Amino acid sequence: MRPFQYSRPSSTPEAMLEVRNILAAGSLSSASFLAGGTTLLDLMKLDVVRPDRIIDLGALASEFGAVRRDGSSLRLGAFAKMAEVAAHPDVTAEYPVIAESLRLAASAQLRNMASLGGNVLQRTRCAYFRNPSWEACNKRTPGSGCAARDGANRMHAVLGTSEDCIATYPGDFAQALLALDASVAIIGPRGNRTIAFASLHRRPDATPHVETSLEPGEIIAEFIVPAAAWTRRSLYLKIRDRQSYEFAVASVAVGLDLDDGMVREARIALGGLATVPWRAQEAEDALQGRPLTEEAARAAALVAFRGAVRQSHNAFKITIGQAALVRALLQAASMEIR
Ligand SMILES: Cc1cc2nc3c(=O)[nH]c(=O)nc-3n(C[C@H](O)[C@H](O)[C@H](O)COP(=O)(O)OP(=O)(O)OC[C@H]3O[C@@H](n4cnc5c(N)ncnc54)[C@H](O)[C@@H]3O)c2cc1C
Ligand code: SF4
């Protein structure tokens, strides 16, 4: 392990003061935030990331570590632990897609340690990215190439890919937030702001190393999930290579607002299939105003993958993704809502 400086600010103002000082000294690019550490320390041990300075934000859990209601919205603190939010009674009863996306992610030990903010900001599991002995990885070293294009790309993305990167976004919870039209409350050295969750992750395009729209030194404080007609009739379906803890081969977050079997509104996000959490807007539109039959679900699934680009080893992901979407829609339609 390489040496690094460590600090643990006790509050948000203290953290921001530290960030502003580092920003003024021009060394923010070599600093990194730490929450649960389950991604960051992993990548440091692999020598993929090499921060000179770690700012441990764990103490901010006293400000942003809870689930709370704010008018009609649900606010999820970014430093809340995945396990706590997955078991929260308000979340399990009214936002089952959130509870399931967290419960089906990682292992019990990881969920007890890992935070919501760290979860949405986790890095790809692309094996070439995670192993610096491979030189060609545009995400790790801009301009170096992409070893996965001609390599082992079974788990890589079929949606949102670019010439420069085909790595899959690996998380589960992000799809639930995306399907539910959540937003992100951000605290930064130049002020606070709130953005749509849909604009947090950036597609790789020609700059795969730029993964989010966060500015230097910005901290995610909360996720805000609006109340809507489709939150109760919602679920997360995850297909993985084994039933114990494993990343998704394909996953679907669905929320439905039904009127006597007819779709008033559908909300769909796909995971394990795209370079970013992927909203299937055209599939949602294809369902609107139609009875939710198997035929309608299959038609929507075809639409969702119309722009898919397969690699040498991952064409099966299109088939599995479509099947997962059909199954998720039919299961959501048959949910008993109290
Ligand atoms: C073996 C294994 C299996 C896993 N399986 C799954 C799975 O199936 N599904 C899944 O979704 N995840 C899975 N994960 C990933 C795991 O859920 C994440 O590692 C975890 O959620 C990250 O949270 P953390 O608090 O530990 O983040 P950290 O490691 O502390 O931080 C991660 C990144 O986010 C930044 N960061 C953290 N919090 C903030 C914040 N509030 N504001 C700004 N920046 C911040 C950090 O600087 C760092 O870059 C797995 C991980 C492992 C090791
Ligand atoms: S897919 Fe992306 S992360 Fe993987 S090797 Fe290519 S550039 Fe790197």
Notes on the protein architecture:
The protein has 338 residues and is an alpha+beta fold. It is built from 12 helices and 12 strands. Strand 4 and strand 5 form a beta hairpin. The mean pLDDT is 97. The structure holds flavin-adenine dinucleotide and iron/sulfur cluster. The site of iron/sulfur cluster has 14 residues, from loops.
The multimeric state of the shown protein is single chain
Cα(first) to Cα(last) distance is 53 Å
The 3D shape can be described as globular
Number of strands: 12
Structural class: alpha+beta
Q: Could you state the order of secondary-structure elements as H and E?
A: EHEHEHEEHHHHHHEEEEEEEHHH
Provide a count of the helices: 12
Largest sheet features? 5 strands, antiparallel
Radius of gyration equals 20 Å
* Bound molecule kinds, no repeats: flavin-adenine dinucleotide, iron/sulfur cluster
Average of the residue pLDDT scores: 97
